[in-house]
Structures are given as C-alpha cells and as structure tokens.
Amino acid sequence: MGKDVSSTVFTREDRTRYRQKVRRCLDVFALMLNDFRFDADRPMTGLELELNLMDIDGGPAMRNAEVLAELADPSFQTELGQFNLEINMTPRLIAGQGFGEYEDDLRASLARADERARKAQAQLVAIGILPTLTLRHAVVEHISADPRYRALNDQMLAARGEEFTLDIRGVESLLTGTDSIAPEAACTSTQLHLQVAPEDFASYWNASQAIAGVQVAMGANSPYLFGRHLWAETRIALFEQATDTRPDELKAQGVRPRVWFGERWITSIFDLFEENVRYFPPLLPLTDPEDPVEVLNAGGVPRLAELRLHNGTIYRWNRPVYDIMNGRPHLRVENRVLPSGPTVVDMLANAAFYFGLVRSLAEADRPVWTQLTFSQAEENFHVSARDGLRAMAYWPRVGELPATDLVLEHLLPRAYDGLDRFGVDPDIRNRLLGVIEQRCRTRRNGATWQADTVAALQHHQNLDRPTALHEMLHRYADLALSNDPVHTWPVR
Q1: DSSP category for residue 135
Q2: Which of the ends of the chain has fewer CB neighbours closer than 10 A, N or C?
C-alpha cells in the first residue's frame, strides 16, 4: 500500500465517491480481462524483503529515516515501524542464472545498506520477528513518519472502535491489548511475485493456497514475540490479530478479516477483486481523477487506482496484483506467507521451492485443489505456522503425514520439475532445493535454531530469557553474514 496519503480525515462524501469509483474500476477490469492483451510473454518474478534495524545492544533501532538518508537508494523504503526497512529487488526471469543474479544483487544491496546503517549506530537483520522487541517498543510513537502509516492506523482503529487484542497460544501464551497497529511492525516478511497470464491466474493462485502450509513449515523463522516463545511462525498469528478491525460481535456475524486466507478456490482473478469490493469497506477512500472508462475507450491502459489501493488494504496471504509496466498491464500472484531471513541463500531456497512447486502444480493434469478442500488447505496453513517443521499436514492421496515427509517424498520432486520448466540452471536448482531437503533431514530451520539456542543459553549458561534473546540475536546476526544456510548453524 504505497500510495501517498495527505489526510487522515475522510467525509461521508469521500467514502461514497470512492465506493462508486472502485465499482467503476471493477467493471472496467472485467472488460479488460475479456478483451485486453496482458503482458505474459516472458513471465517475470519479483522479490521484496522487509528488514529490521538492531541497535548495538540488540534492541530495535528507531532510525529508519536516518538510514534511508544515508542510503539515498530508491530500492529501499520505509515500512510501518521506525525499526523497519524494505528493499524491492529488480524483477527478473529465473531461467538460467536468474537466482544467481538475485543472490549477488541482494547480498551486495544488503551489505551496502548495512554499512550505511552502522553510520547511524544500527545494523540490518533479516528475521521474521525481532526477538528483543518488547511492548514498550510497539507503540504508535514508533510508527514511521510517512503519513500513510498514521492514516492507516487511525482508520483501522476507528473501524474497530476499541483496542486490538493479541491472544496467541503456542509453546507459551501471550494475551495483551494495544491501542494501535504498531505491533504489526514486528512482522517482517519475504514477498515473492510471479507474473502470470489471465487465463492461468486461477491455477497459480489456487496452487499457491494449497502449498502455503508447507511453505511456512519449511521457512518458519519467528518463534518469539515480546519475550514469549509462541508459534514457529508467530508472524502469521500476529499479523492476523494486530490488524483485525472486527470487534467480537462482527466476528460472530461472519464478517471477513482484512488479513485473510480466503474461503474458496477461484476460477478467475476477477473472483478475488470482486470479493474485495463486496466484503470490505474502504479504509483510505482516496480518489484519482482518471476516468477508467474514458481511458479504455480511447485505447489506453487504465491505472484503476482505486481498485489497486483498495486491494492494498486487504492482506491476503496470496494477493492478486494488477500493475502496469512500460505501458502494458500485467497480473501477478504476490506470495506473502514467508518470513524474512535467515540468510540470502535461505530466502532464495524458499523462493525456488515456491516458484518450482507452484508451477508444477498449476500445470498438473489433475489439479491438487480439485482433491483438497479449501478448509483443509487453511488448516494446513495455520497448523504449519504453529508447529513449523514438526507440523502434520494433509495431502490428497497420502492423507496426514509429517510436513517434512510430505516435502521429501512428494513435493520436492515437483519443485525440481517446476524449476526445470522455468529453465533454471541445474546446478543452481540443486543447490537451492538441496537447502530445503537438508532442513527436512536435520529438522533445523530459523525457528528451531532460535528456540534451541535460547534453550541452551537459559539451561546451560543460566541466562534469563531477555538476556538469552539478546545473545541469541547477536549470534544470529553474525552467522547470517556468512550466507551459510541456517541448517548448518551450530547451537551452543
């Protein structure tokens, strides 16, 4: 949701005008899907990475404005918290050496940004949730200065009408209230983009939903929040609850949450945009002067600004994207289930597993979503977020089995097949998918390394929890610089 926002106060007329404009955009989008040529000749991929800033003591460094000023790099931008940054990598094909180019560029960009961050007495850390974050850090005063974040906070709080409640029960439990969306800044993710043709979009989105559970089981890296050991990927529960604009009464009525897995398999990308308009009131009713009907009739490419802004305030775990590049419109699946970190090679292994598996399943003769209920896919997702590599998952024809066995025996071969269809260099394919295989065999990913290290520090060195979390984070940050995959990291 990158649109500039200059006001946090909206009138009834603003909301009425915006609703009408969104529906007009939706009608134009339907016409475009029937008659327009979308760019899908050479499907590009994209990667966005959210990062944390850590101070010298291992706590959050509220200095993103200073670091961005030092960087002067348009690929970096603010995120919700003052201790957050985001980098947007240049889109590229993954055929041939594409993953290798991602790795070189991302490592170079992060090294340069970390060098600048250190001038502001901070250090970059790619981790799902900064484990040293406390409730006193997650307050509205620490939201980034960009007016869009304050506007979003004000509108979400007004929509809810009361405090947000965090109630997460895992290894330990957390129950607290907050008067802002600031705790959501703790969630830092890796977002993968895959450009697809309109006629293929439903297959790729459905496949993405079906594998969301195993993705998060393999990539979990967020076991701690506010000092508590919660889920393997606590970021999932935190994001869902920290931005939930529904009080209990609306939940009981079946009103959909804005952070949403969804409720059905789809037949077209239009299904998702139509649900957005039908189910969700606007949060930021900002209208654009463009008339999309006039632009379309004149042979132009409508921006559909209101439809895109509205879509950006509905946080599906697999989000549909309409965008324009070089004057041509295209569609993307934005996969949002994965955390940041631990290393560049770990994140690219996660990406290779997703891109390969989703292509193989999307192009299968008998689609997996015709054999898997949507509710079962959602259950797989939340169980995997809670239990990580220890999760049990249900899969058609094999029933319920450990997620690690499902990946090793059934899904990794599909991922190899999908990367071959993309034309990925075999050596790169083998290296990245080998990381996923070794996570399964060693039962070690970012979440288990963090939890095992904290347990060792508490039990063998008699450190209290806060001190153990700080020590673990320092070790994590040092080991991440090596770019050795997390399953090889020592626990001591």
Answers
A1: T
A2: C
pLDDT digits (tens, 9 = 90+) for 419-432: 999 999 999 999 99
Identify the structural domains of the chain with CATH numbers, from first to last.
Answer: 36-261+317-488 (3.30.590.20)
| 3-state helix vs strand vs coil in the chain, percent to 5 | 50, 15, 35
Which of the 8 DSSP states describes residue 162? S
State the DSSP string of 441-476.
HHT--HHHHHHHHHHHHHHHS---HHHHHHHHHHHH
CA distance 434 to 454: 27
> Which positions ≥6 away from 336 have C-beta within 8 Å?
189, 191, 315, 316, 317, 318, 319
User: Beta-carbon neighbour count of residue 16 at 10 Å?
Assistant: 11
CA distance 455 to 444: 15
Please report the sign of the dihedral spanned by the C-alpha atoms of residue 104, residue 109, residue 112, residue 113.
Answer: negative
Share of the chain above pLDDT 70, in %: 98
User: Can you give the pLDDT at residue 6?
Assistant: 53
Residue 35's pLDDT is what? 87
Backbone angles phi, psi at 362, to 5 degrees: -65, -30
Residue 342, preceding peptide bond in cis (omega within 30° of 0): yes
Contact predicate 170/234, CB 8 Å: yes
Q: Residue 299: which H helix or E strand, with range?
A: none
Residue among 235, 238, 240 nearest 222 (CA): 235
Cα–Cα dist 461/481, whole Å: 25
How far does CA 411 lie from the centroid of its chain? 21
Residue 193's beta-bridge partner residues? 46, 334
Residue 218: which H helix or E strand, with range? helix 201-219
Beta strands in 204-269 (DSSP E): 224-225, 228-229, 259-260
Question: Rounded distance, CA 159 to CA 449, Å?
Answer: 39
Q: Are 221 and 127 in contact (CB under 8 A)?
A: yes
